[in-house]
Write a structure and sequence with these properties.
By secondary structure, the protein is α+β, with helices and mostly antiparallel strands. It contains 27 helices and 19 strands. Strands 2-1-6-14-15 form a five-stranded mixed sheet, covered by helices on one side. It has a five-stranded antiparallel sheet with strand order 8-7-19-18-17. About 2% of the residues have low confidence.
Amino acid sequence: MQLRVPPPPEKPASGGRAERRRSARLSPRARALATGASALARVRAVVGPRLAPLAPYARRLKPLYPRPGRAGWRRWVPSWRQWVGGALTSVCLMFLFLFVAYELTDIPENLNTYATQQDNVYYWADGTPMARTGWVQRQNMPLKDIPEDVRWAVLAAENESFYSDPGISFKGITRALWRTIGQGDTEGGSTITQQYVKNVYLTQNQTVSRKFTEAMISLKLDNKMSKNQILEGYLNTSWFGRGTYGIQRAAQAYYGKDVGRLNASEAAMLAALLKGAGLYDPTLSQANHERAVERWSWTLDRMVKIGKLSPSERAKYRKFPEPLKTARAYDTGKQTDYLVELAQQYAKKAGHISDKQFDLGGYQIYTTFDRKRQTALTDAVDKARKQAQRDHADEAKTAHYGAASVATDGRIIAVYGGPDHRKQGFNESNAATVRAGSAFLPFVYAAGLEHGVHKTRNGPATPVTPQSLYDGDDGVPVTTPEGPYWDRSGKRVAAHNDGRQSYGQITLAKALAESVNTPFMQLGMDTGLDKVRKTAEAAGLLSSSMGRQVPDLSLGSSTPSAIRMASGYATFAAAGLHTEPYSVRKITRNGGVVGLSTPAPRRAFGAEVAKQVSQGLTDSLLTAHPEAITTAPTGGRSGAAVTAGGKAGTTEDDTAAWYAGTVDSVSTAIVVYRMDLAKSLEPLPLKGLGGTTVTSVPYVIWAKAAGLG
């Protein structure tokens, strides 16, 4: 009997209900694996037959070890095919590695701050260097301002193929790596691009990893930046010795000139320093000198060989260009630092430069300071200091001298800030510490002439002229339209003259010439103390230094600095136009001009008022010092217009002595006072330190600084 075996049940079709139920019970990961396996099976089913003919070749490439058909050690030696395959594989892997490394290497966004930091250079009004500040001696120069002979001297010495290479030297890198790895030594071999990358992006460490990173960045940088940009950066960041970075500072340190004035011979000497200033600075030793001469000559010959210097030009340079023995030092310390401080503060404010930007350096700050006037002012004050130390030794220990000269267009010409900035940091020319005293009277005079006076409350203003009469007696009570003025303690306020002298009825012009106080205290009340205050502020005095709005305001309770007092007197000489004092006329950075907010003149009071006040100051000068007219730079008794005028200033408590005036469109203010800074900020009596009315110390200083003494 024959048995029938039933066929196995058919599997449900893919996608059937049962399979969907099983699939639903699987985890997401299991479903993904199942789907991937299914897809791979389908790919094999399609691609497998097509690749079948290549299978024998693939099997031949598969290494068999030990090798069949060989005996002994030969069984383990690869065949030539395997050698070739291994070599090709290694080359491909190496190129793949370099490609990936290149793609993954980014040019750092943050430069090496020290390598790009520059110093700030300050110049006198005549354009000559005055001082520099900053930790690094570097000033960037645009490539267009660097002569071609200088560029090619560097290229001939360091990297003559610069404009054609890809940014790296394969031969140099191989040699450097061989010495670093094989001999434990380091060697150059870098292109200018690589040296620039090392200067501004990396450290100076000589390691394999640093060299590899340097090469990758160099390749990328060479594709991103132009050759001229890279060369400019290199010339501005390289070390040249003598504390200098960059070709501009090197030119100044070694030859005392800007890079734009270098010739090919001098440039070739500087190019030698790039190999190591300690070995090639010819002033350091005889061996250095010999090396420098040899390298200098070789560089010039290389320039001829590459066609960047003609043989005839080369023939001119037979004598080695000896550099300066030492770099020319700037005059830092003493008065120069006070000037730098003023200029720096103004540059930041007017140039809208942040502290961070300014500290990075690179600014050329052209100041308004006149070297000759600065010297004259400093010498005059120094002489007065020495005289005080001889005549008033005890008082001279706490003596302070503030002085400033300001032109009628606002330029600060000179200042005396103190004996030495390194010993006394605060600037006495800019310090608002002591009362102006009777030196303030011209501002009261100007207010009265400009606005008139009010004899009745809310009544019309009555004009005032230089010939208007006032009571000049000592102790005259101060009055208001309603009667005497009483202070808060219930006492009537009275004005007093210097020495308690009385003058009777006196014109305002004569009162100013003879420094009579009482008329001006009453004039201030009649004009309105608010108008006096506004007139003084419009002329240049700061509102923060103004005294309280009481009768004493007219007698100089305000505490202006010497700079502000000189600025105020300059307004009189400028026909009533005031220009805020400024110390910087131009700022540049790396060849570009920095926008500067330069103050513009504005009307403080009428030109006629300014003329009348100026005439009063001239009369004041001639009344106290009639000899001044014979020594004035312009004018004289022959009839020519007198341009000199000034006014002394004293205080009732004898704590300050002033002299302020104008000669030849430059106003100068001098103040002498005593203050023991170790104890308090309260002014001390001068006790003769300010001199007498005839031999006023501030006047002597003023006259010498103004060219009258």
